[in-house]
């Protein structure tokens, strides 16, 4: 019997986020949603990650309404989101009541699959989100954040996968955010996981280093069940490998593929002028569509690299980029080899930049790095350098328990703060995640509603 390989399409979330900073408005992709629903995908990744922030901050969209509209247009294909465990969609830990409410409302508004990860692979930070996802009847997909270091190896990843599977997840995703997993590493890891893990294995990678298509091919050969890809005109570079290429190659090799090539062509043809628009206005920089093999050395994800360039350019210090890239792995080692995924990638990148620009290592320490060293983000994968810990914390003792256990419930408090400005529980969650952006959005929305009422009254008088 032919082995079936399923595809998750990322054009509505990760491809959009990786190439154009999540600036694609709903109106731009609404006309193609019915085709996306008919293409034969396992799932459509369309929410979570930076989409929530971008909707409120840049697109003047209610992220919850955006999700509901996608669900209405795509009733057949499961909708998928990315959730940062106890961090939800932000950069700090939230109390358990907020995590549970956010998961519940995500499922109620249309999400079918929640991919849940913790930046430190601290399983304590995904337990509540997984539990609530299962209680809500959605599919919980637990994540392994893939990285390379002296303390990360096949044995440690298999051990982590077993712990995640024991939570009751229905799949396990290997999340290679920097595109550094080689074809051999993918083959060996999937082979090891398939021997020990009963649930399906999903592989997520980026094409940052150019390894993406080969890595996915070898992962499938080893038994991977689902792979993440992006429709070809929004693929490559810091995005995912191309959907059509993998569909063609794997089908030719004898795998059972449900993605319809003729529908995929319609989808790609639709997005070509969208890509052309973003190329023309400069938001899609051709640089991010190429390959950055230095990531194999520095393990810097594409988004992190673009942030470093932006920071150094703003400081008129772009000539220090090479020095910062050399400093990144040193900072990472000092901090116990955290995987470079949001929010750790930003935190390590900023600290490396500060170390270089100030001419002294840890002369200035960001509040986020202090919180990390203190234990507010969870358990460091390895040992934090004792000298760095002393420098950052002084005589303060680090936290050893799960940080969320120390947090007071937050949902009802935020609901009282917002009062009538919140039209729903979803509004309260938007406010908790991004207070300033949500309040600005509510203000614009209320003004628009007032204007509509005035116009309606004028028509009535006439």
Q: Determine the fraction of residues in helical runs and give it as a percent range.
A: 40-55%
Q: For the report, how would you describe the main beta sheet? A: 8 strands, parallel, barrel
Quote the average pLDDT: 93
Shape: globular
How are the strands of the biggest sheet laid out side by side? 1-2-3-4-5-6-7-8
- What is the CA-CA span between the terminal residues? 71 Å
Please tally the helical runs, counting DSSP H or I stretches of 4 or more residues: 21
Q: What is the chain-wise order of helices and strands? A: EHHHEHHEHEHEHEHEHEHEHHHHHHHHHH
Gyration radius (Cα, Å) is: 22 Å
Number of strands: 9
Low-confidence stretches: none
- β-strand percent reads 5-15%
Structural class of the helix and strand makeup?
alpha/beta
């Amino acid at each position: 019997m032919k082995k079936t390989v399923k595809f998750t399409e990322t054009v509505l979330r990760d491809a959009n986020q990786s190439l154009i900073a999540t600036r694609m408005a709903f109106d731009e992709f609404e006309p193609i949603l019915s085709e996306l629903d008919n293409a034969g995908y396992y799932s459509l990744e369309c929410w979570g990650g930076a989409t929530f922030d971008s909707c409120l901050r840049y697109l003047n969209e209610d992220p919850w309404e955006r999700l509901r509209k996608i669900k209405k247009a795509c009733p057949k294909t499961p909708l998928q989101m990315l959730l940062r465990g106890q961090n939800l969609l932000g950069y700090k830990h939230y109390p358990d009541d907020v995590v549970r409410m956010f998961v519940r409302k995500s499922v109620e508004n249309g999400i079918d699959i929640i991919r849940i990860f913790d930046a430190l692979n601290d399983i304590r930070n995904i337990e509540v989100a997984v539990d609530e996802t299962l209680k809500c009847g959605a599919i919980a997909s637990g994540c392994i954040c893939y990285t390379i270091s002296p303390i990360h190896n096949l044995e440690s990843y298999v051990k982590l996968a077993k712990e995640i599977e024991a939570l009751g997840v229905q799949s396990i995703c290997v999340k290679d955010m920097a595109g550094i997993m080689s074809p051999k590493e993918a083959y060996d890891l999937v082979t090891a996981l398939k021997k020990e893990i009963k649930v399906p294995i999903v592989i997520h990678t980026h094409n940052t280093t150019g390894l993406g298509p080969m890595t996915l091919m070898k992962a499938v050969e080893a038994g991977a069940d689902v792979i993440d890809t992006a429709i070809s005109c929004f693929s490559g570079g810091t995005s995912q490998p191309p959907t059509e290429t993998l569909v063609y190659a794997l089908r030719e090799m004898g795998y059972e593929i449900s993605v319809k090539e003729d529908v995929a062509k319609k989808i790609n043809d639709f997005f070509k002028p969208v890509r052309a628009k973003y190329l023309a206005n400069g938001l899609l920089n051709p640089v991010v569509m190429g390959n950055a093999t230095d990531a194999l050395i520095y393990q810097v994800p594409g988004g992190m690299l673009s942030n470093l360039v932006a920071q150094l350019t703003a400081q008129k210090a772009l000539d220090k980029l090479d020095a910062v890239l050399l400093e990144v792995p040193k900072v990472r080692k000092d901090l116990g080899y955290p995987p470079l995924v949001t929010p750790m990638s930003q935190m390590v990148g900023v600290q490396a930049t500060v170390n270089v620009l100030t001419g002294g290592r840890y002369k200035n320490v960001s509040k986020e790095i202090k919180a990390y060293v203190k234990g507010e983000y969870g358990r460091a994968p390895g040992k934090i350098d004792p000298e760095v810990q002393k420098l950052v914390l002084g005589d303060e003792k680090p936290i050893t328990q799960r940080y969320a256990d120390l947090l007071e419930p937050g949902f009802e408090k935020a609901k009282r703060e917002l009062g009538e400005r919140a039209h729903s529980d979803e509004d309260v969650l938007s406010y908790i995640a991004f207070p300033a952006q949500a309040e600005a959005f509510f203000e614009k929305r209320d003004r628009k509603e007032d204007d509509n009422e005035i116009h309606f009254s004028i028509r009535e008088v006439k």
